[in-house]
Amino acid sequence: MKQNYIKNIINTIGKFKDLKRSGWLMSNINLPESDADHSFGVALLVMMFAPESLDKQKCMELALIHDLAEIYAGDMTPQDNISKEYKDKMEREGALRLSKELNWPKLTDLVAEYNDNKTREARFVGIIDKLETLMTAKYYTINKRSSLDFLEEFSKYAKKNVSKYNDEELSEIKEIINSL
Questions:
Q1: Where does the chain have alpha helices with state H?
Q2: Whole-prediction pTM value?
Q3: Could you name the CATH architecture of 3-179?
Q4: Which residue, among 112, 125, 132, 111, has the nearest Cα to 165 in the 3D structure?
Q5: Which of helix, strand or coil describes residue 20?
Q6: How confident is the model over 91-133, as pLDDT tens digits?
């Protein structure tokens, strides 16, 4: 294997682990999670809750890469008031750059599938993404990781996002989100 290729993999994984989530930084969280931490949580929840009717491998792939392009695009939050079109464009450009650096053309397709949100798997992982963020907010609140009260804000955001879907696969996740 080429040394440059291995170096690119090492750098990508390291950058993903180093990239702290913007929403937690804005909430003054003590020891905030990284994008890699978050993606692991999403993947774990996918493994636990993905129904038989979905392609679980596809869900896992989407879970693991759904924020990877943020290495170059940046971690944008709803508070940034950035259009979905601009966010998607930045993430597509980041994914394209990563796909070249990693010699992994499939990455651009996976990022596009997740961002387009048209497949049942992409919608499921998108909702799991909101669930994981809400669970992390709950964890941070219980463990007093910030002096700010942000749980209600994250809860409203998650509930708003899940309410627009009627996919049968999402009913259990909606129930969990509504209970938090």
A1: 3-18, 22-26, 35-49, 56-65, 70-73, 84-101, 106-116, 120-142, 151-163, 171-179
A2: 0.94
A3: Orthogonal Bundle (1.10)
A4: 125
A5: strand
A6: 999 999 999 999 999 999 999 999 999 999 999 999 999 999 9
